[in-house]
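fyi for ur records
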Amino acid sequence: MHDGAGIALISAGGAVALLTTFLLRARAPAAFVATVLALCGLAIGVGALLVQDHVSTTNWVVTLVLATFLVPAHVRVVLGPLGRPRPRDG
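which gave:
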């Protein structure tokens, strides 16, 4: 439907997610990293829906909710904790 905008959102969301994951994940506060990754997931989800025809309201709700939560969770599971490492006691 809106191919150019959808492709741009998918590309931008993916690029920012990669930069955040590999450059900021262990340097910035965990809440900031999780928020940026959630917004990237939202952008990727919106972009994916914009390039499709005949998208229902259910598709919008399910895709946006899941993409928003699954991108930060995926990074956390695959690469480890978000945020600065905590100092060890002792």
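The longest helix spans residues 57-79. thats all i got for now
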